[in-house]
Amino acid sequence: MRASMGDVGACWDNAVVERFFGSLKHDWVFKVHQPTRDFMKQDVTAYMRYYNLERLHSSNGDQSPIEFENSQIKVSGWS
Q1: Beta strand segments in the chain, E
Q2: What's the distance, CA 16 to chain centroid?
Q3: pLDDT digits (tens, 9 = 90+) for 6-51
Q4: Are 16 and 51 in contact (CB under 8 A)?
Q5: φ, ψ of residue 66 in degrees (nearest 5)
Q6: Cβ contacts of residue 53 below 8 Å, gap of 6+?
Q7: What is the structure's pLDDT at 74?
Q8: What angle do CA 33, 35, 41 make, to 5 degrees?
């Protein structure tokens, strides 16, 4: 296995992660008071669960990621 590395400054290399962290900061962390490090850790964990399991994504036809993944499994015949 070989690591895949793009050019320096190639924005598409980390697009998915950048999008997640952008949403985390904009939608959650900056809007919710974070009194302690432990509170923030629990809060970020809750946001990750929401982002990956519940949040509707326009690129998935307004389905949550888990709904979209399950629909693809049904279409492909994998189970």
Answers
A1: none
A2: 7
A3: 666 666 667 778 888 888 888 887 888 889 999 999 999 999 898 8
A4: no
A5: -70, -40
A6: 64, 65, 66
A7: 79
A8: 90
Q: From CA 37, how far away is CA 28, in angstroms rounded? A: 15
For residues 77 and 75, what is the distance between their CA atoms, to the nearest angstrom?
6
Q: Give the Cα separation of 63 and 45 in Å (integer).
A: 21
Q: Which two tokens stand for residue 69?
A: 């993944």
Residues 6+ apart with CB under 8 A from 67: 60
| Predicted structure pTM score | 0.63
DSSP 52: H
Cβ proximity of 28 and 47 under 8 Å: yes
